[in-house]
Write a structure and sequence with these properties.
alpha/beta; five-stranded parallel β-sheet; 11 strands
Length: 324
């Protein structure tokens, strides 16, 4: 059997088992992460779309634990970068060091933490703009350039950056062009009373919860390919484009609208959500659910809207109601 036929058979088998695969995956994640199903699902959706995500929440809501748990369940290399004002680009990408071999001194490239499958850039807005921009090439091109040498990053490659919205003094907010590099902006809310009780019960005993591998690297790469093959009707494609174009035309509330990257992203993440839910088609529900994390960091509200306390999610909701 030729390699192409073998790959197609593997993809077909992966597709047939996709519903059971994701059920087992989320069941495994729930052994460690209590609640937060939407957060976990949206992070997985970004990974399936070969994109990156920006997570914003108050401290202590398990952002680091969530992403490290997902990495373990997918058996992917995980690294964490704690962003601080004195963090340098070389601290992320790596640098050349002098190494002595057989009495001779040679330069050797020492890889930085960006050389992993899943990279958590914690509190990215605390890093300087120069260091923030060091992530741009790796996020967009999946490669790192140091001096005259270029190093390819292992696939899959995913950056999850976090921001703390309650401590903004002395930070460096990401510019709009860099925000647009992130496929999704995910908001994490406080747990419910029942979930917080479960968290307390789970993490105040001697037993430490852990997860087993559910999806390996090759299966994940196959799922990324399958995501792009999920069909979507021309009618829904037109609706997605109209939603994004409305953000550029609704000057009463929006100063700057979303780029075509938002249209591409909304269609891709809607396909990924359909796949996760075991459907072989995209629905209106997929588009309406994923429009929020796709658009909330790509639109800039007018001063008047911000003065009146109107949120971006409220504006997005109104757009979805108007564009059918």
């Amino acid at each position: 059997m030729c390699p192409t036929a073998s790959n197609e058979n593997n993809l077909a088998q992966t597709y047939q088992n996709v519903g059971e695969t994701f059920k087992n995956f989320f069941d495994e994640i729930s052994k460690v992460i209590v609640g937060q199903r939407n957060t976990v699902e949206q992070i997985v959706i970004a990974i399936l779309c070969d994109g990156h995500a920006l997570v914003e929440s108050n401290p202590g809501l398990g952002k680091t634990l969530t992403i490290s748990t997902i990495a373990k369940a997918m058996e992917l290399d995980f690294s964490r970068i704690q962003c601080t004002p004195d963090l340098m680009p070389a601290d992320i990408t790596g640098t050349h060091i002098i190494e002595e071999r057989d009495g001779k001194k040679m330069f050797k490239f020492e890889q930085g933490p960006v050389f992993a499958n899943i990279v958590l850039a914690d509190e990215i807005n605390r890093a300087s703009p120069k260091t923030q921009s060091a992530l741009l090439e790796s996020m967009q091109e999946k490669q790192v350039t140091v001096g005259n040498d270029t190093y390819m990053l292992d696939r899959p490659f995913f950056v999850l950056a976090t921001q703390n919205p309650i401590e903004m003094e002395g930070t460096y907010p990401l510019p709009e062009a860099q925000l647009d590099r992130f496929m999704l902006k995910i908001l994490v809310d406080y747990p419910t009373l029942e979930d917080e009780l479960n968290i307390v019960n789970r993490y105040t005993t001697a037993d430490t919860p852990y997860v087993d591998k559910v999806i390996d690297k090759n299966t994940l790469l196959g799922l990324q390919k399958l995501t792009r093959d999920v069909p979507i009707s021309d009618e829904l494609k037109n609706r997605v484009i109209k939603i994004v174009m409305t953000t550029r035309q609704w000057s009463d509330h929006i100063e700057y609208g979303a780029s075509p990257r938002a249209s591409i992203g909304l269609i891709l993440v809607s396909k990924a959500r359909a796949l996760i839910h075991g459907r072989n088609y995209v629905s209106d529900e997929d588009i309406e659910t994923m429009a929020y994390p796709i658009l909330r960091h790509r639109i800039v509200l007018t001063f008047e809207s911000e003065r009146r306390g109107i949120s971006k999610d409220q504006v997005i909701k109104k757009i979805l109601e108007n564009v059918k």
